[in-house]
Amino acid sequence: MKKKITLSLLLAAFVSTMAFAQVTSLRGDQDIGENNSLPKIKVVPKNQDRFALNYVNQPPMVPHAVDGYQINQSNNACLQCHDVDVYRKTGAPRVSPTHFMDRDNKVLTQVSARRYFCLQCHVPQAQTEALVENDFVPAGKFGQ
């Protein structure tokens, strides 16, 4: 019984000290109770030059805004410009042949379900300040 009471008191003391702890986030050193102002959403230019790749097999970044693009089980707005049948007309890069393979490397006639949701890997880019320091250097001739 004494052990349970002692353990309960230690746990209560620990929890009470944690309640006064200060949280540090990428937005600075602020108490939990303070009103944090969210950073503004960065504007992605409508069209911009393609970004250089930084490493082998990096998914290319999207050089245009994708606001309002519908990608669901019945519709993929990306394929309206990038699909094999239309990319020559639109001037957009063609979907990679690897996107037409299932996990057993069987070639399909449609984009594979595991590659269908483009924005999981291909992300739109905006010129912004880095949230954290980064000393990454592209390998070899990448990033040129």
Show the helix and strand layout.
Layout: H1 2-19, E1 23-25, E2 28-30, E3 71-72, E4 75-76, H2 79-82, H3 87-90
Antiparallel strand pairs: 1-2, 3-4
Characterize the structure shown.
GO terms for molecular function: nitrate reductase (cytochrome) activity. It comes from Enterovibrio gelatinilyticus. Belongs to the NapB family. The chain is an alpha+beta fold and 144 residues long. It has a domain at 42-127: Orthogonal Bundle (Flavocytochrome C3, Chain A, domain 2), CATH 1.10.1130. 18% of the residues lie in helices and 7% in strands. It is built from three helices and four strands, in the order αββββαα. The protein has helices spanning 2-19, 79-82, 87-90, and strands at 23-25, 28-30, 71-72, 75-76. The strands form two sheets. It has a two-stranded antiparallel sheet. A two-stranded antiparallel ribbon has the order 3-4. The longest helix is centred in the N-terminal third of the chain and has 18 residues, at 2-19. It is elongated and about 75 Å long. The termini are far apart. The model has no long low-confidence stretch (mean pLDDT 81).
What is the structural class? Answer: alpha+beta
Number of distinct beta strands? 4
Radius of gyration based on Cα positions = 24 Å
**Total of DSSP H or I helical runs spanning 4+ residues:** 3
Keywords: Electron transport, Heme, Iron, Metal-binding, Oxidoreductase, Periplasm, Signal, Transport
Family: Belongs to the NapB family.
Signal peptide: 1-21
GO molecular function, one term: nitrate reductase (cytochrome) activity
